[in-house]
C-alpha cells in the first residue's frame, strides 16, 4: 500500500526538522529577555567617589558598558571607541557609564588610565548589577533609550558602525 | 417507657456541636496546610538549612558562563556571586519559585537546567515518550503479523524447472547404465 510506504519517510520528517533547527541555531546566541523592557535601576559608586543612579538619568540616552581589565582582547579592542564616543556625544546629552566586573580596583584604574577614560566607571561588588542585567560575559553593552528601556544589547566588543547606528537611534528618540 | 431527658429545642439549621466537627476538622486541615506552606517558604533558621536551601535552588539554575554545570556545582566567580544572591533572597523570605522567576527574567529560560514544560521546550519532554509509544506500537503490529502468518511449506517450484531436473536425472541414469 502506498500510504504505508510513505509512512516511514513521513515519520522521519519531524526528526530531520528538529535536527535542522538544532544545527541552524547558534547555541551561544542567548536572546536577552530584557531588551525592549525597562532597564533595571542601579546605584553605582564610581571611582572618583561620586555616586550615580540609572533612574536619575531618565530622559537621556544611556550606554552601560560592562567590562574588566582581565577581559582581553575584546575589552581592550572596544575601549578606545567607548572613550571616543563619549567625548563625541556627551554634549548632546549622552550618558555613558562603565560597570567593572569582578576586577581588582588597581587593575581597573590602570585600564582606565591606559585608555584615558573620562566617563564615570565603578565597580560592581557582588556582581549584583551584572546579574540584574543578565550579563554572562564581558564586554556587554546596553543601549538605553530616553524612556529607560533597553533598546539594544551588544555581546562582545561593539563595532564602530553598530555604536554609531545605536547612538543615532537613541538620540533621535523622543524625550521622556 | 422511660422518658428521655428533654433536649433544648433548636430551630432547624441552627448550630449543633455534632454538626460542627467536620467544619472544625476542615479548618484544622487548612490551618496545617497553611502552616506547612509557610514553613516551606519561611527563611531557614539554621546555617545548614540555609546552605541546603541555597544549594537546592542553585542546582536548578544553569551557570551561564559554563558548559552544562549548575550554579551549585560551578567554581566560576559569577556562579559564586549568584549563590550569594540566592542566599540573600532566601534570607529575605523569597520562595524557590520567586528566585527562579527572578533569574529567568534576567537570563531567560536558558538559565533553567531543566527545560520548562511549556511552549517549544515541551517537545523535549513529550517526544521521547511519544517515540516509545510509536515504537512499541510498531513492534506490536509486526509481532502480530508474524504470529498470525499461516504455517506453510516451501513455495511451489517452477514446473519448467522441475521438468528440467527430472530430464537431467534420467539422462544421468541412462548414461550410467
Description:
The complex is a heterodimer of chains A (176) and B (177). Chain A is of the alpha/beta class. Chain A has a single domain (33-172), classed as 3-Layer(aba) Sandwich (Glutaredoxin), CATH 3.40.30.10. In chain A, 38% of the residues lie in helices and 18% in strands. Chain A is built from five helices and seven strands. Chain A has helices spanning 2-24, 74-89, 105-114, 128-132, 160-172, and strands spanning 43-45, 51-53, 62-67, 95-100, 121-123, 140-144, 150-155. Chain A has a five-stranded mixed sheet, with helices on one face. Chain A is elongated, with a radius of gyration of 21 Å. The termini of chain A are far apart. Among the domains of chain B are: 37-114, Cytochrome C biogenesis protein (Helicase, Ruva Protein, domain 3); 116-147. The termini of chain B are far apart. Helices cover 62% and strands 0% of the residues of chain B. In chain B, α2 (47-59) crosses α3 (77-91). Chain B has helices at 17-41, 47-59, 77-91, 96-107, 122-148, 159-176. Chain B has 177 residues and is mainly α. Chain B is built from six helices and no strands. The A-B interface holds A 11, 18, 30-34, 102, 126-128, 130-134, 136-137 and B 64-65, 77-78, 81-82, 84-85, 104-108, 110, 123, 127, 134.
In terms of per-residue confidence, which ranges of chain B show pLDDT below 50 for 5 or more consecutive residues? 1-17
CATH superfamily of chain A: Glutaredoxin
Number of helical segments with 4 or more residues of chain A: 5
* Rg on CA atoms of chain A, Å: 21 Å
- What proportion of the residues of chain A form beta strands (DSSP E)? 15-25%
* Largest beta sheet: strand ordering of chain A: 5-4-3-6-7
Biggest pleated-sheet summary of chain A: 5 strands, mixed
**Mean residue pLDDT of chain B:** 81
Straight-line N-to-C gap of chain B: 127 Å
Unreliable segments of chain A (pLDDT under 50, ≥5 consecutive)? none
* CATH architecture name of chain A: 3-Layer(aba) Sandwich
Shape of chain A: elongated
User: What proportion of the residues of chain A is helical, as a percent range?
Assistant: 25-40%
Form type of chain B: elongated
**Structural class designation of chain B:** mainly alpha
Q: From N to C, what is the helix and strand string of chain B?
A: HHHHHH
Q: Which structural class do you get from the secondary structure elements of chain A? A: alpha/beta
Give the helix level of chain B as a range of percent.
55-70%
What oligomeric arrangement do these chains adopt?
A: heterodimer
Topology, number of strands of chain B:
0
Largest sheet of chain B: none
Amino acid at each position: 500500500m502506498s500510504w504505508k510506504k510513505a509512512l516511514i519517510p513521513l515519520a522521519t520528517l519531524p526528526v530531520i526538522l528538529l535536527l535542522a533547527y538544532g544545527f541552524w541555531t547558534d547555541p551561544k546566541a542567548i536572546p536577552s529577555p530584557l531588551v525592549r523592557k525597562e532597564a533595571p535601576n542601579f546605584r553605582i559608586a564610581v571611582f572618583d567617589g561620586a555616586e550615580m543612579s540609572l533612574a536619575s538619568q531618565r530622559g537621556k540616552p544611556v550606554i552601560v558598558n560592562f567590562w574588566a581589565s582581565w577581559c582581553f582582547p575584546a575589552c581592550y579592542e572596544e575601549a578606545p571607541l567607548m572613550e571616543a564616543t563619549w567625548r563625541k556625544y556627551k554634549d548632546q546629552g549622552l550618558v555613558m557609564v562603565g560597570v567593572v566586573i569582578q576586577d581588582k580596583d588597581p587593575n581597573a584604574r590602570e585600564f582606565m588610565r591606559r585608555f584615558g577614560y573620562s566617563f564615570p566607571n565603578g565597580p560592581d561588588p557582588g556582581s549584583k548589577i551584572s546579574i540584574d542585567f543578565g550579563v554572562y560575559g564581558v564586554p556587554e553593552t546596553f543601549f538605553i533609550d530616553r524612556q529607560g528601556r533597553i533598546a539594544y544589547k551588544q555581546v562582545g566588543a561593539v563595532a564602530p558602525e553598530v555604536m554609531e547606528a545605536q547612538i543615532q537611534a537613541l538620540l533621535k528618540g523622543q524625550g521622556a | 417507657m422511660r422518658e428521655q431527658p428533654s433536649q433544648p429545642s433548636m430551630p432547624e439549621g441552627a448550630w449543633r456541636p455534632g454538626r460542627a466537627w467536620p467544619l472544625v476538622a476542615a479548618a484544622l486541615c487548612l490551618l496545617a496546610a497553611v502552616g506547612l506552606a509557610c514553613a516551606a517558604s519561611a527563611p531557614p533558621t539554621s546555617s545548614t538549612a540555609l546552605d541546603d536551601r541555597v544549594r537546592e535552588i542553585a542546582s536548578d539554575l544553569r551557570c551561564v558562563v559554563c558548559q552544562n554545570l549548575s550554579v551549585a556545582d560551578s567554581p566560576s566567580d559569577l556562579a559564586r556571586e549568584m549563590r550569594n544572591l540566592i542566599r540573600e533572597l532566601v534570607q529575605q523570605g523569597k520562595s524557590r519559585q520567586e528566585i527562579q522567576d527572578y533569574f529567568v527574567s534576567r537570563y531567560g529560560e536558558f538559565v533553567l537546567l531543566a527545560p520548562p514544560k511549556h511552549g517549544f521546550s515541551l517537545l523535549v519532554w513529550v517526544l521521547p515518550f511519544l517515540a516509545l509509544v510509536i515504537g512499541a506500537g510498531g513492534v506490536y503490529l509486526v509481532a502480530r503479523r508474524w504470529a498470525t502468518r499461516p504455517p506453510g511449506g516451501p513455495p511451489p517450484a517452477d514446473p519448467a524447472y522441475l521438468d528440467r531436473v527430472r530430464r537431467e536425472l534420467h539422462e544421468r541414469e541412462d548414461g550410467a547404465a
